[in-house]
Design goal:
Immunoglobulin-like, 2 domains, 1 helix
Length: 147
């Protein structure tokens, strides 16, 4: 009986599908900009399948701020925010607040950035405020729902 299980185990390896490995590329702010799936056992030369994880084009423009767009809302895993900035006014950091007023995430933003990705997958369902803090002391608030 044990020999049958061993034979099944050994021959089941021949029925396996291709093995893949995922690699990621990040910008200088630590935002994921590219995801690449590399097929290790594929017969396809190169064995690469690329998924660009740059910010999507179907953003919702903020009702309050015409220079800020974000996607998706409601959010499941990641919230993408992009903005237009100028020499006088640009975001330097962001904070995510729960409805109880607690900071649940914070992130620095480098001067040259025009977008950011925020991880929401480990946060509880509910309502959140994403606050963009600007170099001139201004702040802009986005209301986000986490499903």
């Amino acid at each position: 009986m044990n020999q049958i299980f061993i034979l099944i185990f050994l021959f089941s390896g021949f029925q396996c599908t291709a093995q893949e490995r995922v690699t990621f590329t990040y910008d200088t702010a630590g935002n994921q900009t590219r995801r690449e799936i590399i097929c290790i056992t594929c017969t396809d030369p190169g064995g690469r399948y690329t998924a660009n994880t740059a910010i999507p084009d179907n953003f919702k423009q903020s009702n309050e701020y015409e220079e800020i767009s974000y996607y998706p809302n409601p959010v499941l895993e990641q919230l993408y925010i992009k903005w237009l900035s100028n020499e006088l006014s640009y975001p330097t950091s962001l904070e995510v607040y729960s409805m109880s007023g607690q900071i649940v995430k914070s992130k620095s933003i480098i001067r040259e950035s025009t977008d950011v990705t925020i991880e929401f997958q480990n946060l509880a369902q509910g309502f959140y405020s994403v606050v963009l803090l600007y170099n001139n002391g201004e702040s802009k608030i986005l209301k986000v729902v986490k499903h």
